[in-house]
Amino acid sequence: MNHLDDAQLRDMLQRLRRFALSLTREASSADDLVQATVERALSRGAQQNAEASLRAWLFSILYRLFIDGKRRERRHARWLAWFGRGEEGGSSTEDIVLAESGLAAFARLPTEQRALLVLVSVEGLSYKEAALALDVPIGTVMSRLSRARAAMRELAEGNTPPPALRRLK
Amino acid sequence: MSRLIPSEEELHAYVDERLEPARRREVQLYLAANPEQAARIEGWRSDARLLRTALAGWAEQPLNPRLDPLAVRRSLRQRRQRRWATAAMLLVALGLGGAGGWQARETSLLASNPPMADAVQAHRLFAYAPSLDIAVQRPAQLQAWLGEHFQQAAPVPDLSAYGFSPVGARLLSNEQGPAALLVFEDAKGERVSLFLRSPGEHYARMPRGERVDGTLQARYWSRGDYNYALVSDAADGRAAQLRNVLDIAL
Predict the structure, then answer these.
(1) Containing domain of residue B203, as a range?
(2) PhyR sigma2 domain: from which residue to which, for each copy (chain A) (predicted)?
């Protein structure tokens, strides 16, 4: 029996927090998400032994919680809309942290692309680990990665100011 | 020069450093000869760098202490305890409400009112339960607790002369109002309990009496503001004597 010890978990906190922020795009709900993840991990008790799979496991818990939360939020929004006080679109306070860090283009990508880019490019997960964490087949990881990088490029290039006009003689 | 043009997947694997060394060199050569592809890949790389830098800056901020595993463990424990308490309360409500309610219904149907049925039920549920509201050793402690909850309670006599000492008490409630179960134990671990509550709609004042309910025997009487019942094992010969002592004192 391998117990999930606090030191291992503590080492993962900043990584979990980065991942959470890239999903929520907002600091305080990112921390809520990390807390919920640690709770879930502790109450499940880890059967994870290898450090690599522990990492993928924790990321997968966090991602699952985020997706479930989103689903609940949407349902909630539908209810509100039903009662005639729906609020469309994300709040303007969202995205602030990411926009400030020059990640406006990244913040505009769909959730599943953001998740994958962070896991692969920032956290250095192998494609297989990323597939585990996001609970998708490895083929999906590859095609999604390709789409995500292309989309990010496009957005980034669209954001750069147009080159100054050259006066023609 | 490379013979095989790398696939899209291989290009990503190249950026992520997931290629075999031999293949990696081939892709490198391919990119050197194809500046367009090389520029594409450089774009991916710089995006990844940007992402890393930005998120690294964020992660340097101090962690919120509530995220520490120790803090999370603590809050989990507290929540679990609260949940148990709620479950226990629900059980009491169901047990007494259900049993009491069912009993009340039956009694009204049969027009025969088994006196102090809730006392018997409470004894069954709680006399041997591991957790009572309070645990006591001395009669004075029991008396103090009783006084807190029942203003008119007369002093409970010391039963040590009969081999019984108080172990604890539990505050209960059913549709007839609040009630208390005081539990006593002898040296062998046999328990008897004294139940008291205000007379209610279904449990009016009653003459002194006794009845057997399954393996238990209830001896009951009314005095002052309360109805009392001594519940014991039906086979326990000391109960009659105990009841007399209590009856006189209360």
Answers:
(1) 113-249
(2) 11-62
As for how many domains chain B has, the answer is 2
Q: Is the dihedral of CA A137, A142, A143, A148 positive or negative?
A: positive
| Cβ <8 Å between B69 and A127 | no
Tally of domains in chain A: 1
Residues B40 and B118 in one domain: no
Distance separating alpha carbons of residues B232 and B212, to the nearest angstrom: 10
Alpha-carbon distance B83 to nearest alpha carbon in chain A (angstroms): 15
CB-based contacts of B25: which residues, under 8 Å, 6+ apart?
none
Q: Judge whether B1 lies within some domain.
A: no
Q: What is the pLDDT of residues A87-109, one digit of tens each?
A: 444 444 445 566 666 678 888 89
* Residue B42 contacts A where some CB pair is shorter than 8 Å: no
Per residue in B176-211, pLDDT (tens digit) is 678 889 999 999 889 999 998 877 666 667 788 888
A107 vs B108: CA distance, rounded Å:
69
Which of A5, A33, A35 is the best substitution to test chain B (most B C-beta atoms within 10 A)?
A35
Query: Are A98 and B54 in contact (CB < 8 Å)?
Result: yes
Last residue of a domain, one of B16, B38, B59: B59
Domain that holds residue A145: 6-159
- Do A162 and B53 touch, CB atoms closer than 8 A? no
Which residues of chain B are within 8 Å of residue A149 when distances are taken between CB atoms? 12, 44, 47
Please tell me the pTM assigned to this model.
0.55
